[in-house]
Each structure stands twice: as C-alpha cells, then as structure tokens.
Amino acid sequence: FFFFPGAGSTMAGEETVYCICRGPDNGTTMIQCDQCEEWFHIRCLKISAAKAEKMESYVCTSCKAARKAAPAAAAAAA
C-alpha cells in the first residue's frame, strides 16, 4: 500500500513517473490505488502521513469515477 520503487509508468527514454502530477519518485511517501495500482504522492492528494498510515485502502479519483460511470453505462445500454 505504501511506496515501493519501480512501480510507476515509464515513457521511452524518460524516468519513471507517478501520480496525478506525473512526477518522479522524489523520496516522499506515496500510496497505491487498490484498483489501478498507480502510485500517488500523498502531498499531491493532500493526505497527511498520519492519515495515510491509518488508511486500510485507497482508490484514486479516476477509478472512483470509472466505478460510478459503469452502472450508468450499463443502464443506458439496456
């Protein structure tokens, strides 16, 4: 759940990037989305280290939006 190096997205010839900021691992605390497995700097999410340590799971805003959209899309298709 907390950051382990080497888990971000890499563009050819570029360093590994993470988070909504698309920045590199800068040594600060990061958390992983339980659904898409993308890593996020807690600073960018405006989550304190103390709060992050107490969290049992985290789902990013993109995954939350996708989860909300899925039932609406299914209902529209029916």
Give a verbal description of the structure.
It contains 3 helices and 2 strands. It has helices at 42-45, 49-54, 61-77; strands at 30-32, 39-41. A two-stranded antiparallel ribbon has the order 1-2. Residues 3-7 have low confidence and may be disordered.
Q: Could you give a short description of this structure?
A:
This protein is mainly alpha-helical and 78 residues long.
**Rounded Rg:** 15 Å
Q: Which blocks of ≥5 consecutive residues have pLDDT under 50?
A: 3-7
Average predicted confidence as pLDDT: 80
Name the helicity range. 25-40%
Structural class: mainly alpha
Order of helices and strands: EEHHH
Distance between the termini: 37 Å
Quickly count the helices: 3
- The largest sheet has its strands arranged as 1-2
Shape: elongated
Strand content: 5-15%
**In this structure, how is the largest beta sheet organized?**
2 strands, antiparallel
Q: How many distinct beta strands?
A: 2
Set out the fold topology:
Elements: E1 30-32, E2 39-41, H1 42-45, H2 49-54, H3 61-77
Antiparallel strand pairs: 1-2
Features:
elongated, 35% helix, two-stranded antiparallel ribbon, mainly alpha, disordered N terminus, 78 residues
